[in-house]
C-alpha cells in the first residue's frame, strides 16, 4: 500500500502543532458573549479593584466612570440609542437614551444592588443588510444577581432587537429590549433559615424590582427624559462658557431660524439648447405653385449668396459688374465666373 506524498505544510489535527483555519467574521451573538464577559469582569471585586488602583496611580480619580465609558465605546456606536419598553402599574413606558447616557445606565444597574449581569439569547434570527446586521431574539433573558437587600436572582424575559454595524468592530447601533415578564428567585436555604420568623418571610415575599428593574435604574430613566433634551444646552455651556439663560436663548433662536428658513430648492441642471435643422426644399413631385415658390426662394438665396461673396471678395464684384455693363464698342464684355472647384471660367 503506497503512502500519500508528504506535505510539508500539512499538520494533523491530532498533532501538537495543529493550525486552525483563518477565523471568520465575529458573529453577533459572540459580541453579546464578549459583553457578558466584560460585565463579569466588572462584577469581580479583585479585577475591578486592580483596575482602580492603576487608574489612581495614573492620576485618574473617577475610575468608575472611565471604565463604563470604555465599555460603551467598545460595544456601542457613537450615535447608538438604547430603548427599554415595559408596562408598569400606571401604564406602558418607553424610554430611549442616547450614546452619552448609555454608560451611566449600565452603572446604575450595579449601583442598585446588582452584583452580576448577563444576557442569554435563545433562537435568535439574523438578517444581513448592506451596512448593518439585525439580530431579533424573541426569547431573551436578562439575568441579574442581587446581593441586597437579600440574595435574589431576577430573570427578566422579553424580546431583544439589536442592530450591529457590518464592519470589523461590529458595534451596536440600536438596542431595543421589550420586557414581557420577570421572575424573582430566592434560594430555599434562605427560606428554611427564616422559616420561624414571619416578619422575614413577609419581607422575602415582597418584590425587590419592578419589571426586573431596580428603583435606582427606573429613577435614572425618568431623569433621562429631562436630561436628553438638555444635551444641547449642556454641550453649548461647556463649549462657549455661556450662562444657562444665554444658552437657552441661543438654542431657541437657532431653532426658530431653522423653522422660518425656507426649504432649500433642489439644484436644477442647465438645459442645453438644441439647434433646429432647417427644412430641406421640397421635391420635384410637388405642385407647380410649390415649384414657383421654391424657385423664387432659390433666386433670393443665390442673390444673397452673391452679395455675401461680393462683400467678402471685391474682385468678384468687379467681374460681375463688367458682365452687366456694355463695352465701348457696343458689345458686352465677356463674363468671368468661378467654378465650384475654385477655378475661373470665361464666358463670351
* Largest β sheet strand count, sense and barrel closure: 7 strands, mixed
Name of the top-level CATH class of the domain at 28-213: Alpha Beta
Radius of gyration: 45 Å
Average pLDDT value? Answer: 76
InterPro entries: LIM-bd/SEUSS (IPR029005)
Protein name: LIM domain binding 2
Region (Disordered): 262-307
Biased composition (Low complexity): 280-307
Task: Describe it.
This is LIM domain binding 2. It comes from Meleagris gallopavo (Wild turkey). The chain is α+β, with helices and mostly antiparallel strands and 348 residues long. It has a domain at 28-213: Nuclear Transport Factor 2, Chain: A, CATH 3.10.450.50. Helices cover 41% and strands 24% of the residues. The chain is built from 11 helices and 9 strands. It has helices at residues 28-43, 45-57, 63-75, 102-111, 188-193, 198-204, 215-227, 231-240, 244-260, 288-312, 314-324, and strands at residues 76-88, 91-97, 114-122, 125-128, 132-146, 152-165, 172-185, 335-338, 344-347. The strands form 2 sheets. Strands 1, 2, 3, 4, 5, 6 and 7 form a 7-stranded mixed β-sheet that branches. A two-stranded antiparallel sheet has the order 8-9. Strand 8 (335-338) and strand 9 (344-347) form a beta hairpin. The radius of gyration is 45 Å and the shape is extended. The N and C termini lie far apart (114 Å).
